[in-house]
Amino acid sequence: MPPTISLTPATLKAFFDEVALLIGEDNVSRDHSSGALTGALGQTTYGDAFSKADTNLPAGAVRPETVQEVQEIVKLANKHQVYLWTVSRGKNLGYGGTGPVVKGTVVLDLHRMTQIIEINEEYGYAIVEPGVSFFDLYEEIQRRGLKLWPSVPAIGWGSVVGNTLDRGFGYTPNGEHSQSQCGMEVVLPDGTLIRTGSGAMSDNATWALYKGLDGLFYQSNLGIVTKIGIHITPAPEAYATVEVDVPLESDLIPLVGTLSDLMRRSIILNSPSIANIFRIALTSEKPEVLSQIGPYMKADSYVPYDLLERIRVEERWGFWRAYFSLYGSVEMLSALKATVERAFRQAVPGVQFKYREWAGLPGAAISAAEDIKTEVVPHSGIPTVEPLGIVDSRGERGGGHICFSPVIPPSGRELYDWYLAAKKRTADAKFDFFADFHVYPRYVIAIDLVIYTMGEEQRLHELYKQLLHDAGEQRFMEYRTHVGYMDTVASKLDFNDFAFGKFVQTLKDTFDPNGVLSPGKSGIWVTGQNM
């Protein structure tokens, strides 16, 4: 059963009344029915937009605008023993949205904290608050005419802070956001305000340049992050987007092995993403392809792989397609292309390449907004919300998706073995395997993005449990998980009699003895609280 808390109506009313005096009644939601940022269907409710269940519904929400208001709300939560679930903008799609682990928690919604504190073009960084979206940061860079390409994820309406803290990623060379983040401001569970790293010294100029103990606050509930520094890629002189198609399903092994090797040798600087033939067909926008898969795009069905193979042959596509880009000086670009082509031709028979190239001028930066304008994958930092439409691809408006996201070594061998098993599980459950794999120098995030209709939710969660079990048997863990499975994932961390879980519980007991901040986040609870 999902964890639930039962606060008396009087306790909740007293808390909301005091918060309303602090931030105004308009910024207090006394139930979950309104107040959130508008979702894809126009809804402003709190909770998981991709679920009809009430298992992760909050009791309401409060929306501060300043750091001082956050501090006071935390103190009031301790006073009234009310639990808070922190969200930045609430766009955690596929992982629970604004839904808390514990039903009845109050959402601490930071979307009104929208200050861009600083953008430094010389050193390539920004300092932002939690309400700043990827669109906001990009548009401010364009407004100022700065030669910077900010990293953005596939859907750009989310929070720079929230995405980074959940180890999200984008597509420029600074796309590994947890590695590109530097410097935090944090409200601790007692309301104390700290800054990490060089920020611990007032007015230190290297706060966003030299890290401290920032990692303590990734995917945790030990504090509320109110500012972060994030590094940004300088706009290059020359740039090329690359699509690499490989023909066979088993070519995933050399494809991933070659990509990760080129990344370790700093030939490829951004994170390649990999699509399978189902995803290629679904997103192709080719009427003759969509008409063939259309009859299977419905509940309790999946597109047969023999049909996908026929389409692949007809269209001369690969079974797998990798997307990445090359960045550098004018003189470098042709050499980078030659190096990439040589590596893949040696590794994969039948490999195909497709380029879009901006050769540039020596000493001049390419403008993403003026020169590139739009991209299928935002390698130049231009945000979009176009991928949102996939949730309706099974024939019903208002569908959803969930992401099963294990971390796997980058040789390609382990990934292929996991993929074959997960693909079978997904097909047996009558869902399509939508591959959203992301390659890094020393690991792969292998996302099985499952699209479903609301009527398939129970079957979907049975599949998710099977995928979790299988990954545990294979000794893989997710990089990030849905709020409904955080305890399950934490229960797999069994080294030395679950020593890690005991350690983080000790930290939680020390920093947050009342357990008011995001109970159950990443499976972290104060002693005696786990419900």
From TrEMBL:
It comes from the Eukaryota. Residues 54-235 form the FAD-binding PCMH-type domain. Keywords: FAD, Flavoprotein, Oxidoreductase. GO terms for cellular component: mitochondrion. GO terms for biological process: lactate catabolic process. Its cofactor is FAD. One of its GO terms (molecular function) is FAD binding. PANTHER family: ARYL-ALCOHOL OXIDASE VANILLYL-ALCOHOL OXIDASE (AFU_ORTHOLOGUE AFUA_3G09500)-RELATED, D-LACTATE DEHYDROGENASE. This is Vanillyl-alcohol oxidase.
